[in-house]
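Suppose you are handed a protein chain with no further information: no name, no annotation, nothing but its sequence. What can you learn? This example shows the usual starting point.
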Amino acid sequence: MIDLNNISQNNWANTRISILGAGKSGIAAGALGAHIGAKIFISERNDSPGIIENIGNFKHELGGHSNSVLDADILVKSPGIPNDIPIIKECENQNIPIVSEIEFASWFTSSPILAVTGSNGKTTTVNLLHEMCISDGRTSLLGGNVGMPFSENVLWELRSDIKTSIHVLELSSFQLEHIISFSPTIAGILNISADHLDRYADINAYAAEKLKLADHIQESGWLVYNADDPILAESLMDSARSMVFSLTKNEKCHFKLNATKVFSGEPDNPDILFNFEDTKLKGFHNLQNILAAATMAHSFGISQEAIQNTIINFSPIPHRLEWVGSIHNVDYFNDSKATNIAAATAAIESFEDNLILILGGQDKGSTDFRQLIPFMENRVKSIIAYGDAGAEIKNQLNENFTVTYCEYFKDAMLTANNNSTAGDTILLSPACASFDQFSNYEERGNKFVEIFTKLELGN
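A reasonable first move is to predict its three-dimensional structure. Written in structure tokens, the prediction is:
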């Protein structure tokens, strides 16, 4: 029987591990499990050729989850799988322990873990943090919800016998649902805003999964959080060993800012980290991401020189307010990663005026798109609404803005292009998931760039 309270004492030889989901994290967990000698069974409801190729020689089933899953000492659940499906309920009924892939991988590494969660900005923040570690001469492994699955990085660490790694992890709420002993050295929580309400009962249930990270830091570790976020400020104000970052509350922060720069020390004798003009990252939301990464790096002992060099040399991540180019003095920005209202708001606030905004895709749960109105006023010239949510977006916003509905994404882009004049900015910041017409937000962003390139060439 697996003892989840004393993992180091378990004998993994011939331990039966069932894995739900044959995506990247499921296959990585299987490979890690096989390496430690466990017996692996992978259950996947999909049976596409890509899944069959990925699953390789693992004992498996495709096309659904049978009771074979229950022949296990432990279940590792991939993050995309809902918690209310019958096989999960049956595992609970039979007292089979259920853990996330993040929890499972953490059992087999003793390296420091720098973990970041939040509704928006995670990917930019972890990439900054990863580069800061590298700039400081550390062996940093980027994983979790971005880069490699955590299990894959841990397996690489075991096979290479490297003892000086750092794991930098981006963690979604889904990945935090079944953590037990997972314990990062530094935990960063960026913000909480309504997201994934098609999976959670309300924002409180969603926030509870994010806030769980604050309860799991090591005794000698640090919690870093955004003091400007009202949910975090209220929930975490009494946290021991915590550091905050903020755009307004300088007195509580290691890194402070004024109208032109970020610095440490006292305002009359500042140690300048960077001037705003020195970074390629645009918008207040990216300034928060920089402060988060810098504060986490500082609390971990990364040198200020490494932090500074990374901020100055860092380029924006694709699909996150990414400037694609200009056609006839019309700028195109790809912010396909903005899949909720808060992310779209941050993007919109990064511009002054003359915005042609592309919204739409798959709604993530009865979204009130009217929340965008205060931020769009005096900034947005017109809106192109597309996809499954497009008609509802037009219905909600038509009284306040000129809204054109297009069923397909390509037509939305062409319409935006045709409606633009010199000095405009076309911004894809959809506030919706991509799954109505694309497999993920990257594919949607790549289509944006592809269509832009054809327009630029006059095709």
